[in-house]
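Amino acid chain
________________
===
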Amino acid sequence: MRLILIALLVIQDSSRVYDVLPGQSDDIAAAIERSVQHMNFITRPIARHRLLKTNPLPRQLRLDYTTDTITVRLGDAPPAALPRDGSAVPWRSLGGDKCQVSGALAGDTLVEHVVSHGGQAETRYVMLEDGKRIREDVRITSSHLPQPVVYSVTFARAP
C-alpha cells in the first residue's frame, strides 16, 4: 500500500476525487457534543456552534498533486495548499479564521496540521484498499475545550 501512495504522490499535476460514505463515517455532531458536554452553560453553546460551523460533514475530498504542493479540498472549505517540504503557510479556515497549515507524508498517510489562535487540528488522510478509499481522522484540541474533538470520515474514490 505504501508503494501505491508513494507512486500516487510522485505523479505530478494529477487529481484524485473521493465521495463521502456517510454510513461509514462518525457522527460529527455527537463527537462535538462529547467534547463540550462538561463546559459551563454559557460557553458550551458558543463552542458547539463554532465547532459545528467549521466541521460539517464534507460531501467530497479532492487531492491535487503538483511537483511542490499537495492541495486538499475538503467539502466547502477553502483549499489548503500544503508545501511538500512541510513548511507552514497562511490559510483561512471554513470559519474565516487566520491559520497556519502544514503537511507531511508518513507512510500511507498525509498528515495535515492547522494552527490558529484558538487551538489546533491534526487531520490524517489514510489511504485504504490501495487508494480506493481514504479515511480522514480528525483531532481538534484547544485550551478552551475540556477534551479533544475526535472523529473519522470515510471517502470512496469517485467514478
User: Anything to note?
Assistant: The longest strand covers residues 119-128. The first helix runs from residue 2 to 10. The CA atoms of residues 21 and 95 lie 24 Å apart.
